[in-house]
Request: fold
Amino acid sequence: LLDLQHESAGILFPSAFTRGEQGIPINGLIWMGSKQEMQSRIREKLDQGFRVLKLKVGALDFDEEITLLKNIRQQFKPSDLEIRLDANGAFSLEEAPGKLKQLSEYHIHSIEQPIKAGQWEAMGEICNTSLLPVALDEELIGISNPSIKEKLLDTIKPRYIILKPSLIGGLQKSKEWIDIAEEKNISWWATSALESNVGLNAIAQWVFTLKSKMVQGLGTGQVFGNNIESPLQLIGPELFYLQSKKWETQVLRQY
Reply:
């Protein structure tokens, strides 16, 4: 916050991103809803230019979710649309293998956290046998010791890890996860966790400096009715930092 009140005006990691020259490709997030609502949201995101969509699964009737994915794939080939799924630990140990097998038929990029966190051996077995690549998300929360991080990744052997810096100890601890993962050929991307634009600003600038080739999961804080106006701007499927836009610093001075 203090940074926004000084000359640097929110620029923490100077780069082509903060100069407004390059954006960060992000996925479109489809929130849970009825079949009709989700189809409408998917169409809206596609019309905006998104070619990577993240859908939540596990909350609706599974057959309905399968039908939705089938309909999407009938319209869009995997080369035209990448689908990422997030189960938020919704599947039981017993049902997870069968459900992942069904989901894999629709050329899914990955699924986040198919079962609840904390079941390392079971998650490792899923990663070893599933045709659908698994990404760890909640599994990373609460682990700060580098040796435990390494043990977790060695035990589970996921294809991907997903970093939420605000929930796993900040940018430095997130970089620790990245370094350990990359040594093991585990890919990663970062995602926001309902931060305001102040938090999103720091994460976005940091992510850009890491030169990841993965599409990121950075939203624009639209869930906040009182979010602070910032230079962050979503243009199509990319997040930009527009120097022509200014921080709403008078709001910050009220706190």
Q: What stands out?
A: The mean pLDDT is 90.
